[in-house]
Design brief:
alpha/beta, Rossmann fold, binds adenosine-5'-triphosphate
Length: 212
């Protein structure tokens, strides 16, 4: 059975950097599907921020025409702080014998040691790191060490084992970030060609990042 890709994010809003990365990883790693997991409302983030329901709606609209992309709303529905390790524990219980691949941009991977119980993640899933512009794979520190112990250069291992490998894969680099998109929208500019049209319509109609 092919691995399931898990792509978590704030998706505030979702953009073509996310979608193209997920698409290339789905194709090149021969994943059964990519499951998008929008986070719930993180209490510490600054406004303006689209609420969880709206971010979920934008993710659903963005992937609606791609059958291999699935939206999983469990983190939005969960109350309280949502940790990836809890989500992966749930998914592992649902798919005990299936390869699970946590898909991360390199910036997210570099921040991994700050995640709650981050070392446990590799007991639950593989980690697939997509190169992002300007970032280099770590060779030192705690991440450098886990790369030595868990790094692999072959996609086959992601299929043969259910968890425990780290695989770095280059994707087409689209220098788009949600932060820059929000700034662009706040300043009255049009996000066309940076986000799918369906997402652009929701942004327009909800005015979620517009200045009051
Ligand atoms: P923000 O600017 O608000 O931090 P973001 O654009 O980085 O947002 P997130 O929702 O935080 O988006 O990211 C979700 C995942 O997508 C992370 O693993 C991140 O590394 C990855 N990602 C974000 N932007 C890109 C991009 N342009 N290309 C490839 N991966 C990306």
């Amino acid at each position: 059975m092919q691995p399931i890709g898990l792509f978590g994010g704030t998706f505030d809003p979702i953009h073509y950097g996310h979608l193209r990365t997920a698409f290339e990883l789905w194709q090149e790693l021969r994943l059964a599907e990519v499951r998008f997991l929008p986070t719930g409302s993180p209490p510490h983030r600054e406004q303006p921020l689209a609420d969880a329901e709206l971010r979920l709606r934008m993710v659903q609209a963005a992937v609606a025409d791609q059958p291999a992309f699935v939206v999983d709303d469990r983190e939005v529905r969960r109350t309280g702080i949502s940790y990836s390790v809890d989500t992966l524990t749930e998914l592992r219980a649902e798919y005990p014998d299936r390869s699970l691949c946590l898909l991360l941009g390199m910036d997210a991977f570099l921040g991994l040691p700050n995640w709650h119980r981050w070392r446990d993640l590799l007991g639950l899933a593989h980690i697939v790191v997509a190169h992002r512009p300007g970032w280099k794979a770590p060779t030192m520190g705690p991440l450098g060490e886990v790369m030595v112990d868990h790094g692999t250069g072959t996609i086959r291992e992601l299929h043969e084992k259910t968890a425990g490998r780290i695989y770095v894969h280059a994707v087409t680099q689209l220098e788009i970030s949600s932060t820059e998109l929000r700034q662009l929208i706040v300043s009255g500019r049009d996000p066309r060609y940076l986000v799918p049209d369906e997402v652009r319509h929701i942004l327009r109609e909800s005015r979620c990042y517009a200045r009051e």
